[in-house]
Amino acid sequence: MKKSLMALGSLLMLGGVASAQKVAFEEYNLDNGLHVILHQDKSAPVVVTSVMYHVGSKDENPERTGFAHFFEHLLFEGTKNIQRGEWFKIVTANGGNNNANTSDDRTYYYEVFPSNNTELAIWMESERLMHPVINKIGVDTQNEVVKEEKRLRVDNQPYGNLIAEVKRNMFVNHPYRWATIGSMEHLDAATLDEFLAFNHKFYVPNNAVLVVAGDIDIAQTKAWIQKYFGPIPKGAPINRQKFEEKPITQTIKATYEDPNIQLPMVVASYRTPSMKTRDARVLDMISSILSDGKSSRMYKKIVDDKKIALQIGAFNYSQEDYGLYIIYGIPMQGHTAQELVKEADEEIVKLQNELISEKEFQKLKNQFESRYVSSNSSVEGIAENLATYYMLYGDINLINTEIDIYRSITREEIRDVARKYLNPNQRLLLDYVPAKDKAQN
């Protein structure tokens, strides 16, 4: 009887969690095309104000790569009404914090403030869009900042060029082929007029989504949004070229020398469909089966049992147009990259030919339920998810329903998707090795 009561209590608690996870939101458009999403959560006196622009490194001129990431920095320089160097001072002086990030597909800016500074946050983001100051001093300053970031995060970071090298070898036509941080030579060669033109084209209200989430008064927030964002002129429609890649039909082999490493890494990468597809979500599950945690198939076999690798991992690198399924490993001393690839391939073949057990399948479902709860556990996470589902997926309500897609995936689909995408003739094999002079020392 006691166990029954405990079980009933657990079910009630889980039901409460599932109910609490439903994210309520309101959305509408301003006349200038800005899409607005509001989410009220009065559990804490905090508000997140964020703007996502549909511009990433894939929107750049191949001769001017790095512009999207550069603007992530440049648009903190100042505006007509916020003096140069004052942006971060205003934020911290009012108890807030802020940041921004760029991907191949979009650029995202956000502020987190105490709720009594909601109007300030809305005004600041409108200033970034309406009155940015883009001049030579700002460009030169941020050029040095970006160069330093590249030195720290890429050039001098062990395995820092891994994703960039995978992309470079796997995309021929699509702009995903270059690194998000871009080329410093391209940035050096760019003129001020080119930066102004990029801003004029992409930083327009009809290419953006504004999210205000947290402890807000809906009517008052709408009034502030209209006051500050409403007067911003609509931009010209953005016509995006569609780039398609031919299927990979035979193994691509490549080598990259990294002066920052002492241990070689082997990478197997497969081109996969858009993150909006059901197959991309199945590949997320396959990643968990193969390498999520020390009890996962690859880790347990290759690292723990056979001790062939120091490290092994697999992940689905999902993007708006295409994705990459990447498996990587560092061989243990005395073992080769070929051995590691052979062992990883055996696990994939097993997945392609045998259904995973019901027990493993239930564990997998539990992992994705946990991720779902975690992704919406903070107002910051909810704000970014709302913006992402609107801008990149075209369906905001996926914040509530995407978990149902994962719940509906079957063991048979896991087998079939592994068969469809994870084959030796459809991949890149990259030997990511120490630079020769490094290896000789």
From TrEMBL:
One of its GO terms (molecular function) is metal ion binding. The keyword Ion transport does not apply. Residues 190-367 form the Peptidase M16 C-terminal domain. Residues 334-361 form a coiled coil. One of its GO terms (biological process) is proteolysis. SUPFAM superfamilies: LuxS/MPP-like metallohydrolase (SSF63411). It comes from the Bacteria. Residues 36-175 form the Peptidase M16 N-terminal domain. InterPro entries: Metalloenz_LuxS/M16 (IPR011249), Pept_M16_N (IPR011765), Peptidase_M16 (IPR050626), Peptidase_M16_C (IPR007863). Keywords: Coiled coil, Hydrolase, Metalloprotease, Protease, Signal, Zinc. Residues 1-20 form the signal peptide. The keyword Iron does not apply. Belongs to the peptidase M16 family. This is Peptidase M16. It comes from Flavobacterium cyanobacteriorum. The lineage of its organism: Bacteria, Pseudomonadati, Bacteroidota, Flavobacteriia, Flavobacteriales.
